[in-house]
Write a structure and sequence with these properties.
The protein is about 30% helix and about 20% strand. It has 9 helices and 8 strands.
Length: about 280
Amino acid sequence: MAVQSVFRLGVHDKQRAWDRWVDGRLGHRIQVEERRLARRELRRLFGQVVLQVGGTAGFPLIADSLAPVRLHVVFGGEVPKTSHCPVILAEDNLLPFPTDSVDILVLQHSLDISAHPHQVLREAERVLRPGGRLLLFGFNPASSWGLRKLISTPLDSLLPWHARFMRRSQIEDWCRLLNLVPELSRHAVYSLPLAKTGIRKLFKRIEHSMARKEWPIGAVYCLRAKKERNAYIQGKPSPLGRFANVGQTLKPAVGMRRKPILRVVQKPDDASSDWRSV
């Protein structure tokens, strides 16, 4: 039975497909390593509002951030009763946030599974404030996982073999066109795309050696970019104040006719009382 293209799935089906894959061995391996990369970068970055787009609700990469405001946008699926930060249902190419309102934005494979990757990146640039940082996670075609994708068949699992593996250099070119200046990149997951642990043990020493030297052939990469644009600062606004009138200040992405919808579907017990559904 042929598998359906991940790019043709609805947002809810796409989210469920991602959640199922993360529950497996290969997906869990990727999630753990990306969490490690995100923790490493977030400790070096400072900001009041941190937003993650994509990933699994309840297991955000931004859980270790010390920012006072942390938000996680997912496309649907199962929403846990408890989470490290508020979970918001929205589309990655139509984010329900004002322009220039986010200090740090994390895109977890959003470009890899979106039918409109240019639009996703353009929308990320819109909500990111001048001087803010973008952390973009993607599958690396120049890896053993990329080679495995080349020989994938319609019978293989939907993710990651039917997702988009984009060259880091291509993403960097897109970023420069949007005034997002690439600063650095890191790689992770040097293991073979095999679920069986017995075979993986044979290559453990090689994996550790490549991980220490951080060769650019890891299964995933993390690209960090800075948004450069002059901005006029008037006073010192509150981080929550940026979203005080979110319903009135939202602007749809370029080329989009539908109005964005903000729906907070879950929030931590200790969340500020200022948060409310709009």
